[in-house]
Amino acid sequence: MAALQILNVEKRYKSLQALGGVTFSVEPGEFFGLLGPNGAGKTTLISIIAGLSRADAGTVSILGHDVVSDYREARSRLGVVPQELVFDPFFTVRETLRMQSGYFGLRKNDAWIDEVMDNLDLTDKADTNMRALSGGMKRRVLVAQALVHKPPVIVLDEPTAGVDVELRQTLWKFISRLNREGHTIVLTTHYLEEAQALCNRVAMLKAGKVVALDKTSSLIRRISGSQLVVSLARGTLPDALKPLVSHPDELVSGSKYTLRVNEYSDVEPILATLRQSGAVIEDMQLQQADLEDVFIQIMEGEK
Ligand SMILES: Nc1ncnc2c1ncn2[C@@H]1O[C@H](COP(=O)(O)OP(=O)(O)OP(=O)(O)O)[C@@H](O)[C@H]1O
């Protein structure tokens, strides 16, 4: 049974189609990335998964429980870390986490609450009022809140937006541990390096539609091949090579070009063309394309 199944989900805000028939499923134990530019519909989809918003059509289920008709069962299996920080300022961190446990009918939950606080470096702040915490600390509490009931499926909506390196590392260490222990993780992030390092599979959303759905490694291999990055000390890129440029703004901005190559044998003719044009190479490296290159290609609709 899928940890998360999304079937033909549609959502419209007046004339705007925010989700135009989204379908994918996430298997138990996966670390799954939901990627897309601003406005692609990621948060809308997460609100529907969390039962905070209703789809106009389609269904979502968590471990076989429909998020509308079987809301309580679905919700008890799900932990959501939302993007926005909303708290009751009068409670301490520990009180906030105890109350959240209460929502799920858990009374003697202090051992797990202590463990979660410890893993998120929150122990020192256990008795501090929420209003006295910094933004980064509040974000840690938001993560802790989503985990108090040890949900098998954990959804994180841009948990590292604007947070410092230390929190990112703390968070990923803990989330990766939970994933190793069998929890399913669904992550949205704009940090594609982070997604590439953590997610074994990703879906890319564009204007409310899934435009790519595959293993991270297959996407990188299938779409981009390798890249030859050349910096020119003299001359400009000959016209014959311009179709190979991966990032169109490089044609405007300068002397460094990222050229797509499918095979190593493509490199030789590129160098010959450059030599014949009189260009002088200052620096050159062959690199594997990364998820960001794939993302740019897909979002520009080049494929
Ligand atoms: N309550 C709402 N009323 C009207 N339009 C909305 C509402 N919520 C979202 N939208 C619109 O729906 C589209 C999808 O928004 P959504 O927040 O789901 O995107 P997102 O992929 O999460 O973007 P971001 O990366 O910026 O968080 C956007 O065009 C947004 O303006």
From TrEMBL:
CDD domains: ABC_DR_subfamily_A
Keyword set, alphabetical order: ATP-binding, Cell membrane, Membrane, Nucleotide-binding, Transport
InterPro entries found in the cross-reference section: AAA+_ATPase, ABC_transporter-like_ATP-bd, ABC_transporter-like_CS, ABC_transporter_ATP-binding, P-loop_NTPase
One Pfam family matching this protein: ABC_tran
Annotated ABC transporter domain residues: 4-232
Single annotated GO MF: ATP binding
Alphabetized Gene3D superfamilies for the sequence: P-loop containing nucleotide triphosphate hydrolases
Full protein name: ABC transporter ATP-binding subunit
